[in-house]
Amino acid sequence: MQPMPDWNPVSLCRKAILLLLLLPFSLPSLYLSAQTFRIDTISDALFQRIWEKSYKRDCTVPRSELRYLQVAHYNGEGKAVQGEIVCNKAIANDLIQIFKELYQNKYPIERMQLIDDYDADDERSMEANNTSCFNFRFIAGSTKLSNHSRGMAIDINPLYNPYVRGQRVQPKQGRPYADRSRRFDYKIERGDLLWCLFTEHGFRWGGSWRTLKDWQHFEK
Question: Is the model's pTM score more than 0.90?
Answer without folding.
Answer: no
